[in-house]
Amino acid sequence: DLLRARGAHGELAERLAARLRETPEDVAGWQELAVLREERLWDASGAAEAWRAVARLDPRHAGALAGLRRAAERTGDARALDAVIEREIELGGLDVASAWRRLGRLRRDVLRDLAAAERAFSAALNADASDLVARRALRELAEARGDWRCALDHCEEEIARMDASDVAARHALWLHVAERAAGPARDLSRAA
After folding, report:
1. What is the pLDDT of residue 92?
2. What's the DSSP call for residue 111?
3. Closest CA to 138 of 96, 107, 166
4. Predicted TM-score (pTM) of this structure
5. H helix or E strand, kind and range, residue 166
6. N or C, which terminus of the chain has less Cβ within 10 Å?
7. φ and ψ of 111, to 5 deg
8. Can you list the pairs that 161-169 forms with residues at least 24 positions away whose Cβ atoms lie under 8 Å?
9. Residue 26, H or E segment
10. At residue 158, does pLDDT exceed 70?
């Protein structure tokens, strides 16, 4: 407590880490070290190490997963972030559709794993059938790989779920369908 009162956070972290080497099963100690490293020392890698120890000792510990997510975001470790968000989804601690969309964007834009991105956006759509963001992302991925039938199906479903009062957006999407159907899809029945 004296070290904490003096603001000697580095020394406190060192002593706490030494104590945890002697008592590695101390969940509360690892959590304290993680918070200290994260909030006082701005040591994202060190915090991640401590949060991993908490998660190893208590796999359902929501604070550990949130801490690992923050550490992965701060260090730019996209693979670790992917794994943590997926684990959080498994445990049910997040808005599922939103979390799957986030994973889809991460996998598409950062990891460049389009197949995994497609699975994530599909999972978001399964969680919320009205999710136009996930549907649009699936359409774009289908277009990128040249699966025009799938892309046009997503377009038409998106139009069906759009707000009827958004005439301009609906019109633009119908034009998109017609252009793709008449062009690369070679589906003249949809182009009409």
Report:
1. 84
2. S
3. 107
4. 0.80
5. none
6. N
7. -80, -15
8. 161/130, 161/132, 161/135, 162/132
9. none
10. yes
82 three-class SS: helix
Cα dihedral: 158, 164, 165, 166 (round 10)? 20
Q: Within a 10 A sphere around the Cβ of 21, how many other Cβ atoms? A: 7
Angle at 38 between CA 21 and CA 74, to 5 degrees: 120
Cβ-based neighbour number of residue 168 at 10 Å: 7
DSSP state of 107: I
Question: What CA–CA distance (Å, rounded) separates 191 from 133?
Answer: 24
Structure tokens at 114: 């389009």
Q: What is the pLDDT of residue 24?
A: 92
d(C-alpha 184, C-alpha 5), whole Å: 69
Residue pLDDT, tens place only, 98-140 = 999 999 999 999 999 999 999 999 999 999 999 999 999 999 9
pLDDT at 8: 73
What are the tokens at 154? 């997503």
pLDDT of 163-176, one tens digit each?
888 899 989 888 88
